[in-house]
């Protein structure tokens, strides 16, 4: 028991040291200072499981999942445009963060060795990238162009997200879509605090004849000031 307490204390201490280091690396800008002065306090986006298909990838390429460099064709639409922002709890933008997304394609197929082993009859789309990464700009904004995923294995439609700040994982979550009837029976979504479930939902934007546009504000559990 004593050893367990010591181990817990060590983990907490290491986490505090890591967070302190990150604070030193990030210099708050004027907007952050003003937001903090106004007393903003946003609840962090709830964590969600990364699931079994976190990509095995040395190169996450870019934020356009609809086209693979070197291929003669782009994957077919309709497309999903994800326009989002990453914020600190005080409302200030997280700039220079790396945001990764990964998802199934429009046939419910994941690009992962475990998936291909379990479902050898499922065919990968050679023109879809399945995962990608973007860097947040000075406003904390990031953008992905992809295709709408579909439900698989009874799960609600979702896009997996992971956020890195200064190389450290700061958030692993999933984007869900409002109105999805499967949300009410999904153990992962239901595990989020009731007053924070809405933070896991994208906000629908303009939908034209071809594409779907959504946005979402992600908040990392880390104070910037
Ligand atoms: Fe998934």
From TrEMBL:
Cross-referenced Gene3D superfamilies: Aromatic compound dioxygenase
Lineage per the UniProt record: Eukaryota, Sar, Stramenopiles, Ochrophyta, PX clade
The protein's name: Intradiol ring-cleavage dioxygenase
UniProt-recorded Gene Ontology molecular function terms: ferric iron binding; oxidoreductase activity, acting on single donors with incorporation of molecular oxygen, incorporation of two atoms of oxygen
Origin superkingdom: Eukaryota
Keywords: Dioxygenase, Oxidoreductase, Signal
Ranges of residues in domain Intradiol ring-cleavage dioxygenases: 50-208
The keyword Cell cycle appears for this protein: no
Entry similarity comment: Belongs to the intradiol ring-cleavage dioxygenase family.
Pfam families per UniProt: Dioxygenase_C
UniProt signal peptide: 1-20
Keyword Ribosomal protein: no
């Amino acid at each position: 028991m004593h050893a367990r307490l010591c181990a817990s204390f060590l983990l907490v201490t290491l986490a505090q040291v890591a967070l302190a280091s990150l604070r030193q690396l990030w210099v708050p800008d004027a907007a952050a200072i003003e937001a903090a002065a106004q007393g903003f306090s946003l609840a962090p986006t709830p964590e969600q499981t990364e699931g079994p298909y976190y990509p095995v990838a040395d190169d996450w390429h870019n934020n356009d999942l609809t086209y693979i460099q070197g291929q003669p064709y782009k994957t077919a639409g309709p497309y999903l445009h994800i326009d989002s922002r990453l914020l600190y709890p005080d409302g200030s933008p997280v700039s220079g963060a790396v945001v990764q997304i990964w998802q199934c394609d429009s046939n419910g197929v994941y690009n992962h060795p475990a998936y291909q082993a379990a479902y050898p009859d499922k065919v990968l789309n050679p023109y879809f990238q399945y995962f990608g990464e973007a860097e947040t700009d000075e406003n904390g904004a990031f953008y992905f162009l992809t295709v709408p995923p579909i439900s698989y294995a009874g799960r609600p439609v979702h896009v997996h997200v992971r956020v890195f700040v200064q190389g450290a994982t700061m958030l692993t979550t999933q984007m869900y879509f409002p109105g999805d009837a499967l949300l009410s029976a999904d153990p992962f979504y239901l595990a989020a605090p009731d007053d924070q479930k809405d933070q896991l939902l994208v906000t629908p934007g303009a939908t034209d004849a071809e594409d779907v546009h959504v946005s979402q504000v992600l908040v990392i559990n880390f104070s910037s000031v």
